[in-house]
Amino acid sequence: MTGFGRGAAASESKKITIEIKSLNSKQLDLSMRVPPYFRELEVTMRSELASVLQRGKVELNVSVENIVPEASAVINTEVLQQYRSQILALAGTLGIPEPADWYATLLRLPDALKTELKMVDAADEEAFRQACREAASALMAFRSREGERLFQFFVEKIDNISSLLASVEPFEEKRVPKIRARLEEQLAKLDSVEYDRGRLEQELVFYIEKLDVTEEKTRLRSHLNYFLDTLGLPADSGQGKQLGFIAQEMGREINTLGSKANDPDMQKIVVKMKDELEQIKEQVLNVL
Questions:
Q1: pTM
Q2: Once rounded to an integer, what is the mean pLDDT over residues 7-24?
Q3: Which of 105, 139, 147, 205 is the most buried (most CB within 10 A)?
């Protein structure tokens, strides 16, 4: 969801430049800095941008350059007339002279200048909307290029986890005899303890079955395939959240595999799988 876009358009009186920056976020968090003249367009453009951008922490900045000079403020003549009348009355009452410089005195008083808020004319509105859409389009193009890079990244990481999962099998075949031999060795040291050999065999079978990771491997392979299938969906399917959920399920299976491993070589493989998965989770936040 990271990206940057810029758009520009002009009317007869104004040149409008809009920049949009996007960072990762689970929801759409859109902040807009719009000059007062265009403030009335903010609501409709916010809705239009939300349908295009969907997710991300987005900042939009609008800058306006006046092509034709215009006065942004005018002298408030009526207010200044009232001020002058009151000052003259005050001078007569207090017996003090009138101001030597009326302009300096009056123009420093509150509300001496007034700003006229004009309605946005049709040409300026069209230029604003055009610049906004152009910036959003540039941002989405940036995101698309980033998406192509992420697609290859995810495929590589999923292949790495799949290869690591396959490398577990040789160690898995060896570990059951090793576990059994270790338990029997410990029991042999207990010379003074008598035990039921048949019951021991049952307990060994039960214990070894609890260490079996066949189901975890099967589910993890299924999640890996599901991740790739979801990754191949159309770009407007909103698969970012779905990929995040699948990655969580992958993590559960990898953690269970590690807790059942009971073998140092398998544990090393599980650590590598976790590292690959963490990289996937970090970048999934960048997917819509």
A1: 0.63
A2: 92
A3: 139
